[in-house]
Design a protein that fits this description.
Blueprint (H helix, E strand, L loop, with lengths): L4 E5 L4 H17 L2 E7 L7 H14 L5 E6 L3 H8 L5 E5 L9 H4 L1 H6 L6 E4 L11 E5 L5 H14 L3 E6 L18 H20 L1 H6 L5 E6 L3 H8 L5 E6 L12 H9 L4 E5 L3
């Protein structure tokens, strides 16, 4: 048993129960304790919800150490603090707020901008232990923390890792066609750049391939619509992993467009891993 633990936010809703189940499975798989957190205005109101959550975990995982904690604060601030030096933070897609719908559901993506480690948002209806592949979307070598998490998850679960790398869109200047197929300067330059882009995911995960030789890796480049490609892949994946970067002071949502799409529509749980450094 390690010192680090898995944290899950609950509020008594059905989606929070789904998140609780995922968090318990993750804690068992990692050999850690589970901490159940309920952010509430009055600490005295938290007892029944926390007791019910703990009883559900003990019924399913009798040997798993469980700690419950009531926090008088907003869900985002409470879970952001709890996320320091933990193995994983888990929340549902909605709930953890007094208003239903998009506002309450936004807790997950607002938390993604403040969390100190990997954040799993429990989406979809796949069983927690079905053995589906791990899917990861990579933009560049700066997504090393996300790639490391994805390899570790695939190794823990004994499943294949599918890597989708988003190629940079390039504006191509129109030119007269060559008399010989694919030999104009522009076509040759495009072919060269295409080969370089396709090599990026191989180079970016080469060290991790060596560190986790038991993990089968399927790597491919996506030239258009990375969010669409990842979203389609979530139909078969057990979990999808992407890297996130702090967006403080920038206009728009606290997470990027790909993360926002996945948090709203993914068919499986989404893990957001903050970039390091």
């Amino acid at each position: 048993m390690t010192d680090r633990h898995v944290v899950v936010g609950v509020d008594g809703s059905l989606v929070a129960v789904r998140a609780l189940d995922w968090a318990a499975e993750e804690a068992v798989r990692r050999g850690t304790a589970l901490r159940i957190v309920y952010a509430v205005a009055d600490r005295d109101e938290a007892g029944p919800i926390l007791a019910s959550a703990a009883a559900r975990v003990h019924e399913r995982h009798s040997g798993l150490p469980v700690e419950t904690r009531a926090v008088e604060d907003s869900a985002v601030r409470a879970l952001a603090r709890e996320s320091e030096d933990v193995a994983l933070t888990v929340v549902g897609t909605r709930g953890l707020g007094s208003v239903s719908g998009l506002l309450a559901g936004s807790v997950s993506w607002r938390l993604a901008a403040q969390v100190h480690g990997p954040l799993l948002v429990a989406r979809g209806d796949h069983p927690c232990d079905e053995g589906r592949e791990v899917l990861i979307g990579l933009e560049s070598d700066t997504d090393e923390a996300a790639a490391t998490y994805a390899f570790q998850e695939a190794a823990r679960c004994g499943v294949r890792l599918r890597v989708l790398h988003a190629a940079t869109h390039r504006h191509l200047t129109p030119e007269l066609p060559s008399l010989v197929a694919a030999t104009s300067p522009g076509q040759l330059r495009q072919a060269r750049d295409d080969r370089a882009e396709e090599a990026v995911p191989r180079f970016s995960i080469a060290r991790l391939r060596e560190a986790y030789p038991q993990v089968e890796v399927d790597s491919r480049t996506v030239r258009t619509g990375p969010a669409h490609a990842l979203l389609a892949g979530t139909r078969e994946a057990g979990v999808v992993v992407i890297g996130t970067r702090r967006r403080a002071g920038r206009v728009g949502p606290p997470v990027g467009p790909v993360a926002h799409v996945l948090l709203q529509h993914s068919h499986c749980p989404v893990v957001l891993v903050p970039a390091t450094g």
